[in-house]
């Protein structure tokens, strides 16, 4: 079976299967997830603690992290924060028994790309993994920089500049801005933004979207003209002020 691969090199040829790191202290869970994802063609490895995950990521960064919240040493939320703070952020799917809405909101606000609760269906987990990787790769395949006013986003280098000033974004902030910029002047509904950036629906997501729009405004709109605007009762649009 030919598995999912990463395009590399100037020729764009497929060189290696996509790597997934599973972090969970329940061996039955890791065995199940590893077996399912390997069957789908992914290059999968598992560790059972947060510290082991930090070591593994430093040695061989994965394309995606499947991360439990309740680990024996480092809380999964804290681990996600530490990885992103060190510049080693990567697409992350939380897989945990903690099913409270506030936990889901917290995980997504930290930069998680999806949140799946235990017990789970293997087929759904695989589909969500594929969706996250598809969304992560979609931005990279966009030809040429996107520009609007004095805002520029380069999908090849993932660099963002406003008025010539470099803007540092998290992975989730980048995806949100990319979608807004690719649809400049178009009003995007909350449902469209949630589906594109997070790809699923559950209670509390609206607050996560509002939080990330707020983060983007602080970074993109520190000086006039403001480019990110709220359309009351609908969603958001990237445009010049009227």
UniProtKB/TrEMBL annotation:
<dbReference type="GO" id="GO:0032993">
    <property type="term" value="C:protein-DNA complex"/>
</dbReference>
<feature type="domain" description="Response regulatory">
    <location>
        <begin position="19"/>
        <end position="133"/>
    </location>
</feature>
<keyword id="KW-0597">Phosphoprotein</keyword>
<keyword id="KW-0804">Transcription</keyword>
<dbReference type="InterPro" id="IPR039420">
    <property type="entry name" value="WalR-like"/>
</dbReference>
<dbReference type="InterPro" id="IPR016032">
    <property type="entry name" value="Sig_transdc_resp-reg_C-effctor"/>
</dbReference>
<dbReference type="Pfam" id="PF00486">
    <property type="entry name" value="Trans_reg_C"/>
</dbReference>
<dbReference type="InterPro" id="IPR011006">
    <property type="entry name" value="CheY-like_superfamily"/>
</dbReference>
<feature type="domain" description="OmpR/PhoB-type">
    <location>
        <begin position="143"/>
        <end position="240"/>
    </location>
</feature>
<keyword id="KW-0902">Two-component regulatory system</keyword>
<dbReference type="GO" id="GO:0000156">
    <property type="term" value="F:phosphorelay response regulator activity"/>
</dbReference>
<dbReference type="InterPro" id="IPR036388">
    <property type="entry name" value="WH-like_DNA-bd_sf"/>
</dbReference>
<feature type="DNA-binding region" description="OmpR/PhoB-type">
    <location>
        <begin position="143"/>
        <end position="240"/>
    </location>
</feature>
<dbReference type="GO" id="GO:0006355">
    <property type="term" value="P:regulation of DNA-templated transcription"/>
</dbReference>
<keyword id="KW-0238">DNA-binding</keyword>
<dbReference type="GO" id="GO:0000976">
    <property type="term" value="F:transcription cis-regulatory region binding"/>
</dbReference>
<dbReference type="InterPro" id="IPR001789">
    <property type="entry name" value="Sig_transdc_resp-reg_receiver"/>
</dbReference>
<keyword id="KW-0805">Transcription regulation</keyword>
<protein>
    <submittedName>
        <fullName>Two component transcriptional regulator, winged helix family</fullName>
    </submittedName>
</protein>
<dbReference type="GO" id="GO:0005829">
    <property type="term" value="C:cytosol"/>
</dbReference>
<dbReference type="Pfam" id="PF00072">
    <property type="entry name" value="Response_reg"/>
</dbReference>
<dbReference type="InterPro" id="IPR001867">
    <property type="entry name" value="OmpR/PhoB-type_DNA-bd"/>
</dbReference>
<feature type="modified residue" description="4-aspartylphosphate">
    <location>
        <position position="68"/>
    </location>
</feature>
């Amino acid at each position: 079976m030919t598995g999912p691969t990463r395009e590399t090199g100037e020729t764009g040829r497929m060189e290696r299967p996509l790597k997934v790191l599973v972090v969970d202290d329940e061996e039955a869970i890791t065995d199940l997830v590893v077996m399912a994802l390997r069957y789908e063609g992914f290059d999968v490895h598992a560790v059972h603690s947060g510290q082991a995950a930090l070591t593994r990521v430093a040695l061989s960064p994965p394309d995606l992290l499947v991360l439990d919240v309740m680990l024996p040493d480092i809380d999964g939320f804290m681990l996600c924060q530490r990885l992103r703070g060190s510049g080693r952020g990567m697409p992350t799917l939380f897989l945990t028994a903690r099913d409270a809405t506030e936990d889901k909101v917290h995980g997504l606000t930290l930069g998680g790309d999806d949140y799946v609760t235990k017990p789970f269906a293997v087929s759904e987990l695989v589909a969500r993994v594929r969706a996250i990787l598809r969304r992560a790769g979609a931005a990279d395949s966009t030809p040429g920089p996107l520009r609007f006013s004095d805002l520029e986003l380069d999908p090849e280098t993932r660099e963002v500049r406003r008025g010539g000033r470099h803007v540092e974004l998290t992975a989730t902030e980048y995806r949100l801005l990319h979608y807004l910029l690719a649809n400049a002047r178009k009003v995007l509904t909350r449902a469209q933004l949630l589906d594109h950036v997070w790809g699923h629906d559950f209670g509390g997501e609206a607050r996560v979207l509002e939080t990330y729009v707020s983060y983007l405004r602080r970074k993109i709109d520190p000086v006039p003209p403001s480019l990110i605007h709220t359309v009351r009762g609908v969603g958001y649009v990237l445009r010049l002020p009227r």
